[in-house]
Amino acid sequence: MSVLSRPYFHDEQAAFDFVEAIIWPQGPVCAHCGCTDKITAIKPNPEKRVRYGLKKCRDCKGQFTVRMGTIFEESKLPMTKWLQAIYLMTAAKKGVSAHQLHRTLEVTYKTAWFLAHRIREAMRSGELAPFGQGGGDVEVDETYFARDRRFSHRGGKSMKGVVSLVDRSTGRVRSIVVENVTSRTVGKIVAENMAQEARLITDSSNVYLRVGGTFSAHVSVNHSKEEYVSKLDPTVHTNTVEGFYSIFKRGMRGVYQHCAPKHLHRYMAEFDFRYSYRVRNGFDDNARAVKALEGVVGKRLTYRGGPNVRPQAAPV
Ligand SMILES: [Zn+2]
């Protein structure tokens, strides 16, 4: 049996049952009044349009489904397609392009583009707890992203910086997009996202010098002198965060080459999510998809405008 033969990828009722079990582990919650004990399922009337998962609250008399208040709201796409899209995006290490979703799911390119951005929003963790709590090691590095190589000089308008922190104890990564990489911008991000008792590990870039002094220790490797792992202390290296950047860069070059810099933070959330919930951290493809589904609540998104890129293939 393949993964793709699972009922919730094909049967709309099974898809609703699957999503409800994740979003409502204790049973349905009224989307209008929060009531939990007077909810009844409405039997579909075959004479009318069948509305899957429709519930009625006997307290406030309101009707609702599990879609309300989530990224699924205001979408007419069947839940089976949402689940297929979430599985594809959470399982593919370097991501899945909107073109690929458009072809695989047989939805229009525009639908695929909105779908992908909403799923990225579900992947955004929103966690604010500082890394390195209890005195752990945190690797920090910065990189640049440009959509177009012609503008890839530092400080160019279509150029953005990214600062990423890796907590070595939890294996998680957190990335923040910045307009310019300076001591001030990077220092602020590091200070806000790292516990003071942690040890900061960076390369020898001087953007970390000032903020480095505010932690229990700041150690670095000097890449310009071909030092990648300290000879005195082999735990001093930035290989973990650089490994993350190599996955990110392969994805952006190979899959998301049309990403507009203004959307970069959404793509970073996607790469952060997959890396933080990778197999080495105990998440298989299934567990990772469930994790993304847990993030769909409270993330309704409405976009002005739409895809920046014309579809290469005609929309279905
Ligand atoms: Zn109610």
What report would you give on this structure?
By secondary structure, the chain is an alpha/beta fold. The chain is 32% helix and 14% strand. It is built from 9 helices and 8 strands. It has helices spanning 12-23, 79-91, 98-105, 109-123, 183-193, 209-212, 239-254, 264-276, 285-294; strands at 39-41, 55-57, 63-64, 137-146, 159-167, 172-178, 199-203, 217-221. The strands form 2 sheets. It has a 5-stranded mixed sheet with strand order 6-5-4-7-8, sandwiched between helices. A 3-stranded antiparallel sheet has the order 1-2-3, with no helix packed on it. A hairpin with a 5-residue loop joins strand 2 (55-57) and strand 3. Helix 2 crosses helix 9 (285-294), helix 3 (98-105) packs across helix 4 and helix 4 crosses helix 8. The longest helix is centred in the last third of the chain and has 16 residues, at 239-254. The chain is elongated and about 75 Å long. Residues 30, 32-33, 35, 57, 59-60, 62 line the site of zinc ion.
Q: Kindly provide the radius of gyration, computed on alpha-carbon positions and rounded to a whole number of angstroms.
A: 22 Å
- Which segments are poorly predicted (pLDDT under 50) over 5 or more consecutive residues? 301-305, 308-316
Side by side, the strands of the main sheet go 6-5-4-7-8
Strand content: 5-15%
Quick check: average pLDDT? 89
Form type: elongated
Our count of helices gives 9
Range of helix content: 25-40%
Decide which structural class fits the backbone.
Answer: alpha/beta
- Biggest pleated-sheet summary: 5 strands, mixed
Distance between the termini: 29 Å
Strand element count: 8
What is the H/E order? HEEEHHHEEEHEHEHHH
Ligands, ions, cofactors: zinc ion
